[in-house]
Specification:
Helix content: 40-55%
Shape: globular
Distance between the termini: 49 Å
Number of helices: 22
């Protein structure tokens, strides 16, 4: 069936979640723009839930609310180049955001809870990326109570303002109230980003009533306490100050994020440049990406004219959507196999167009978008395998998929009876800087931690088609079987992966993918994959007498007191 963007509920009778939406379908956010300042106001429709059985009271949220937020952030970056500052606030009186909806968490499957938390944090990372790299600065105007995920949303912003009305507070009450933790970045952003003292953070995270006033400022929980009578006036002043510092072009024309062309059905998800084929027997999704068929635009003006049809832009949008389709709606598909088709020279030409025009605001946004999509692949709890075959085009941007994979296989030679030249990979400038991982390293730097000089060796071969033996010698490929062994080696690898415990694979992959320095992002996703995964299914939180199940009932949780 053909799909277009619709509202955010699951499709009736299917349970399928769609991340595609548009502003005129928003149920929970109001986006307004005045000059170079945008106002993104939370006004959650408590009855517009993603699933039945709970109400989104007090601006609490479920995945549907965050899908709209993600869409708004993307549109602000691409459709509104003039916006230099975004004010995140609430349109509900005396309430900013009560955080993730507790009844939703209590009713949701474990997999949905973890997927929800991961997407939520990726969205908050997108806010920080917009501030840090797109110079579209986010400030948070807390005009009521900000609890749990509500305060975590504020923490993702660059500047936090709290109304001084005697009752509005900030808090992270998950531990005392729910026996879980602020796992969508709250703990990490508190001490690593805002650099709150350990002892202060400990008290704050174990105090359910939260903090306000002078102590909230002194402990660096907020940046500014604002008198209630002048709240709107001072927030507007700050927003204009931040917006005027931005280098975003005030007179540029944005690019409309039109609905993606997508067909879902028959075990396939089909876009213009990406096709996903599901093999449920092997728990495998084969993701095939096609190179552009004609030479891409070469100048910034031509890229703007191509709009969303510019191949790197279209690829980012399609691959982003495909990843979320697989994450949210195909949870038993545990292995993703990446393949490519087409002319590697065309991919290299697209990379050159990006690098040659990197100073243009739209090109900058496209490159940052591709970086975020590749990061989304890195942190997905799926086994990743890349297959480099004759006719493939793993060059530059697409070679990053090989470098991101847990294993890669490249055919040495050609298939018997085939008429295509041997498989080759191609390094471009995009492999040496623009696509850093959550660790802050490029995938090549992460791969060669033990021998950094090998990054330089790879750079010397940039632009040269590398067949199997050369690619293996440079360390770009895991295995190079020949035609005789190819089919068996791939089959065994996929069958073996399907035979392992998914939980153990998730823990192993998350640990192995992020070698090197630890950063805010690697800490957050390590906790999502391990600590939060574990805590969310422990009886103290999710059991019959656990805090999540009993929240709001008046009954006291019964904890197993043994530390483990």
């Amino acid at each position: 069936m053909a799909e277009t963007a619709g509202d955010l509920r699951t499709e009736e009778g299917t349970g399928r979640i769609d991340i595609q939406t548009r502003p005129d379908a928003y149920r929970h956010w109001k986006l307004t723009i005045e000059g170079n300042v945008a106002r993104l106001a939370m006004d959650v429709d408590e009855n517009a839930t993603l699933a039945p059985g709970y109400a989104l009271k007090l601006n609490s949220y479920d995945l549907g609310v965050d899908i709209e937020l993600y869409d708004a952030i993307q549109r602000l970056r691409f459709e509104h180049p003039e916006v230099g500052c975004v004010v995140v606030t609430s349109d509900k009186p005396r309430v900013f955001c009560a955080g993730a909806n507790i009844n939703m968490l209590g009713r949701s499957s474990h997999a949905h809870k973890v997927n929800f938390c991961k997407f939520t944090n990726e969205t908050r990372n997108g806010i920080e990326d917009a501030t840090g790299n797109s110079h579209q600065i986010y400030i948070c105007a807390i005009n009521g109570t900000a609890a749990g995920g509500g305060y975590e949303l504020a923490l993702a912003c660059d500047y936090i303002m709290l109304i001084d009305d005697g009752s509005s507070t900030v808090s992270l009450p998950e531990l005392p109230l729910l026996a879980v933790l602020p796992g969508t970045g709250g703990l990490t952003r508190l001490v690593d980003k805002r650099k709150v003292r350990h002892d202060h953070a400990d008290f704050f995270c174990t105090t359910s009533e939260g903090m306000r006033g002078k102590r909230a400022v002194d402990w660096n929980l907020i940046d500014e306490l604002v008198p209630g009578a002048r709240f709107r006036e001072i927030v507007s002043e700050r927003a204009r100050e931040f917006a005027d510092r931005s280098d975003r072009p005030k007179n540029a024309t944005g690019v409309a994020l039109t609905p993606l062309k997508r067909e879902i059905g028959g075990g396939r998800i089909v876009y213009d440049h990406v096709t996903v084929v599901l093999d449920r027997a092997d728990s495998t999704a084969t993701i095939t990406i096609r190179a552009p068929e004609t030479a891409p635009p070469a100048t910034a003006a031509e890229i703007h004219e191509a709009d969303t049809a510019f191949w790197p832009f279209a690829l980012a949008r399609e691959l982003d959507d495909a990843i979320m389709e697989l994450r949210l709606n195909e949870q038993e598909i545990g292995t993703w196999v990446f393949r490519t088709e087409g002319d590697a020279a065309m991919v290299a030409a697209a990379d050159k167009a990006l690098l040659d025009n990197a100073g243009d605001w739209l090109v900058r946004e496209i490159m940052l978008y591709l970086k975020r999509v590749l990061k989304r692949i890195d942190v997905s709890s799926r086994s990743l395998i890349a297959l480099v075959e004759p006719g493939s085009c793993f060059a530059g941007t697409l070679l990053e998929l090989v470098l991101a994979s847990d294993r890669s296989y490249m055919l040495d030679g050609v298939f018997e009876g085939g008429n295509e030249p041997p498989a080759a990979v191609l390094l471009t400038g995009m492999n040496f800087g623009p696509y850093t991982m959550s660790s802050g390293l490029t995938r090549l730097e992460s791969r060669f931690l033990a021998a950094p000089e090998r990054v330089g060796e790879a750079r010397e071969r940039q632009g040269e088609p590398l067949e199997a033996e050369d690619a293996e010698a440079l360390g770009l490929i895991t295995f190079i079987p020949d035609d005789i062994d190819w089919e068996d080696e791939i089959r065994i690898a996929i069958e073996e992966r399907a035979s392992f415990s998914p939980d153990a694979l998730t823990g192993m992959e998350a640990s192995l993918r992020f070698a090197g320095p630890e950063t805010l992002e690697t800490k957050i996703f390590g906790r999502l994959s391990a600590w939060q995964n574990w805590i969310f299914q422990r009886p103290n939180a999710a059991g019959e007498h656990g805090a999540l199940k009993l929240y709001g009932t008046g009954r006291k949780s019964q904890y197993d007191r043994r530390r483990v």
